[in-house]
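Lab notebook: predicted structure, single chain.

Context: the supervisor wants predicted structures on file for every construct in the current expression panel, including those that have not yet been purified. This is the next one on the list. No modifications to the sequence; it matches the entry in the shared construct table.
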Amino acid sequence: MGLYYYGLQYTTSSYSVIFTNVIPIATYILALIFRMETLRLCTPPGSAKFIGALICFGGTMLVSLYKGRPLHLWPTVIGRHHQVLQQNISRTHQVYGTILLVGSCFSFACWYLLQSKVLKVYPYKYWSSMMTCLLGGIQTGLTGVIVKRDRKAWKLGWDLQLLTILYSGAFATAVKYCLNSYAVQKRGPSYPPMFNALSVLFTTFFGSLLLGDDITIGSILGVILIIGGLYLFLYGKGKDLHRGDDTEEKSAV
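Prediction complete. Output recorded below exactly as produced.
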């Protein structure tokens, strides 16, 4: 998450959220490499999962590489934010932010795989989530002391910064890790990150409505592909789980 926030600092919200869709692809590929998932292209569920993952990846690349004509669908709430943000980004090294975002996606993918293994030998998922957040807080705290030595940077007031910290800590971290751990335990490591595709839809909409980010033809087409690939993958995953349940019932009989 630290890598993601630093990558977000050098890019935009609509650009950064696209990289969350690399997480399910990376998770799926790593799960195949470590034999935590089976490919089985000859079966309909295996083909659906593989094709769905490719469509999601293609939609992500389409949003990243093709912009198209911008669509001004509604007036923005914060009108000047987009212009100021674009000026700031032009003075920064966007490649550096992209590298940080890719590193964040790979780290998240590794976490899903490790969490799947941990929950098999240590099934107390909420205690595991608490320890994850605690150790992550210590790690980021030490990193923050090294990077930001100015005391003013650590002062909190009754402003948007405090609200952001409370929201990020309570929902974007604590609740997110608990729900992800539960889903990993029930459905496997490659299932929860596939829902990251929906974050592109919400971020693109609210970024345009509130912050003035452009909605382009490329972003709309990419979102359609991402959501289509997501549900194709979930269809194949559901068929796999249903087949596994049937096999267990037959073996029990």
